[in-house]
From TrEMBL:
Regions crossing the membrane: none
Taxonomic source organism: Clostridium muellerianum
Designated name of the protein: Helix-turn-helix transcriptional regulator
Organism domain of life: Bacteria
GO MF entries: DNA binding
């Protein structure tokens, strides 16, 4: 499980570098946010993540899956159905996402007040 870390030593000694590595990518936090709400299919995620291309969404989901944050369930149906959900480790990141969202609101309000 998990991608090979680009600089394993720095990531082992720096938890912030590990988090930065795991969620690096323009869409990963947004994908995690949408999966925190419920299990979703690929096309549903693509609609929710406006402007993301299919190859980029697939790549980001694959990396999140490789890193143990997202689970992909393939149903043997015709046509095949694939659903994505958060793993237990992915769910443990949800409070961090919520805190970041709250901070983002404070920051946006602060910037609006300074205009």
């Amino acid at each position: 499980m998990g991608r090979i870390l680009k600089n394993p030593q720095s990531n082992k000694s720096c938890p912030i570098a590990t988090v930065q590595y795991l969620i690096s990518g323009k869409w990963k936090m947004i994908i995690l946010f949408h999966l925190s709400e419920k299990t979703r299919r690929f096309n549903e995620l693509q609609r929710l993540c406006k402007q993301i291309s299919q190859p980029i969404l697939a790549k980001q989901l694959r990396e999140l899956e490789d890193d143990g944050l997202v689970h992909r369930e393939i149903y043997k149906e015709v046509p095949p159905r694939v659903e994505y959900s958060l793993t237990e480790m992915g769910c443990s990141f949800v409070p961090v996402l919520k805190t970041m969202g709250e901070w983002g609101k404070v920051y946006i309000n602060s910037m609006e007040e300074n205009e």
